[in-house]
Design a protein that fits this description.
Layout: E1 2-6, E2 9-11, E3 16-17, H1 24-35, E4 42-48, E5 54-59, H2 68-82, E6 86-92, E7 127-133, E8 142-145, E9 152-160, E10 169-173, E11 178-186, E12 192-197, H3 201-215, E13 224-227, E14 235-240, H4 244-254, H5 257-269, H6 277-290, E15 312-313, H7 314-326, E16 361-368, E17 371-380, E18 383-392, H8 398-405, H9 412-426
Parallel strand pairs: 5-6, 6-13, 9-11
Antiparallel strand pairs: 1-2, 1-18, 3-15, 4-5, 4-14, 7-8, 7-12, 10-11, 16-17, 17-18
Helix pairs in contact: 1-4, 1-5, 2-3, 4-5, 5-6
């Protein structure tokens, strides 16, 4: 099924389809209208002195850009004020509640970094890097994890000969950030980069916080307590994220799901509602409806597009692109989309990496199995032409898939996309 909309033509424009990451343009629209371009996440550290040492409360607000370096900087401020002795550590983790992943996410994505949980305790992308290298045939592969103190992986992937007919690797997710890798890897395979999502946010964050305390020279051997809605102690320090417009640019260019879902939940919290996917969905529908858009049939389960239950029409996405052109507050988003052949998810998209489309397309892509979408603008001579092109139910036979994988031919949908976009480009004077 191919659905498209342009200024002078459309096809199947009102059929509900899986948007995948093109849903991020919906999230960006709602966030910029509600929160404003200068909105910042504020992570606070509050302290209270005592004879036993200082009592620390860390108030986490789900900042998707928060890092260990930011945490240590906060702790250093506290140390400079009250010394190195710590009596207790509490963490407020109540900003986001309910499930940390949306309804309708594919279960076997859970251990992969692009599906990292959107948590109140976001830190360092909730992700751990690694890689897998083949050994000698018949032996186990060699697994490297960037930080084995954060996750534990039982590697049972066996190296097989290059002539082995088929190999696949399976990641099994257990409790307490325990994982198992099973399957095989061919002996002539190059290094396979891996990125593991954490699944026990409290265990992961506790390790990060204990390390941060040590790096800041703070002595504490007790446990870390988690509680929702902790009040602030009198002495307070804070860390602020970059402005929302910068976070949205990162989300759009890199198609970052953690940023998208964290911002999505924040929309609910800033309306004094529970920080859940359900409440955020209702907020987004209400907001866009107030802007004159019809979302009565749309299904929005998250802000990232990871849920396979999301359903959006090409016509709705096209109307949002028109809003980006006409609304002064939203115009800033146009230049923050990936640029064809240059940045983000369009840097290597083979349909747009050559003239006349290279550097002439600003668009958000959306891809999951069976879905290839593109939403944005064609630029020519200072003119912007909005477009939406969605392909759902995409399936190749084995010969086609092999040829595409070996880059012997362009994917049929991308070939169609290239030809269609070139036609649109020609229509601009």
């Amino acid at each position: 099924m191919i659905s498209y909309v342009s200024p002078d033509s459309s096809q199947h424009a009102d059929i509900l389809l899986t948007p995948a990451s093109t849903l991020k343009v919906v999230t960006a629209t709602a966030a910029l209208k509600q929160l404003g371009k200068d909105y910042r996440y504020t992570t606070s550290l509050s302290i209270k002195p005592s004879e036993q040492g200082m009592h620390i409360r860390l108030h986490m607000r789900g900042d998707p850009s928060f890092t260990s370096q930011d945490l240590v900087a906060l702790l250093n401020k506290a140390k400079a004020q009250l010394g190195s002795k710590v009596a207790s550590v509490q963490v407020d983790d109540g900003e986001f509640t309910g499930h940390s992943r949306s309804q309708g996410q594919v279960w076997n994505d859970i251990g992969i970094c692009f599906a990292a949980p959107a948590s109140s305790l976001n830190i360092d992308n909730n992700c751990v890097n690694g890689n897998l290298k083949p050994g000698k045939a018949g032996q186990l592969s060699r697994l490297h994890v960037s930080d084995s103190g954060l996750i534990n992986i039982d590697n049972q992937i066996v190296t097989v000969s290059p002539s082995h007919p088929r190999c696949e690797q399976n990641l099994l997710v257990g409790e307490n950030n325990q994982y198992s890798l099973e399957g095989c890897i061919k002996a002539d395979r190059s290094m396979m980069p891996l990125r593991f999502s954490i699944n026990d946010e409290h265990r992961y964050f506790s390790t990060k916080l204990k390390r941060g305390l040590a790096r800041a020279g703070l002595s504490y051997k007790g446990s870390i307590a988690y509680q929702q809605q902790l009040s602030l102690y009198p002495e307070r320090f804070s860390h602020q994220s970059a402005p929302l417009l910068d976070l949205l640019e990162y989300m759009l260019v890199e198609s970052d799901n953690l940023t998208a879902d964290s911002i999505f939940k924040t929309l609910a919290r800033e309306q004094q509602r529970a920080g859940t996917y359900q409440q955020a969905s209702e907020i987004v529908v209400e907001q866009l409806s107030d802007m004159g858009l019809d979302l009565s049939r749309a299904q929005i389960r998250d802000g990232s597009g990871l849920s396979r239950e999301n359903l959006i029409s090409a016509n709705l996405l096209y109307q949002i692109m028109q809003l980006w052109q006409s609304d002064p507050q939203l115009k800033a988003l146009v230049d923050r989309l990936p640029l064809a052949g240059e940045t983000g998810t369009l840097k290597y998209r083979r349909s747009v990496t050559r003239a006349p489309l290279k550097k002439q397309i600003r668009a958000k892509s959306g891809y999951v199995n069976g879905v290839i979408n593109l939403v944005g603008f064609i630029e020519k001579g200072g003119q912007l032409r909005p477009f939406v092109l969605m392909a759902n139910g995409v399936s190749l036979n084995e010969a086609e898939a092999t040829a595409v994988r070996k880059r012997q031919t362009l994917h049929p949908v991308l070939r169609y996309e290239k030809e269609w976009l070139e036609q649109q480009w020609q229509m601009l004077n």
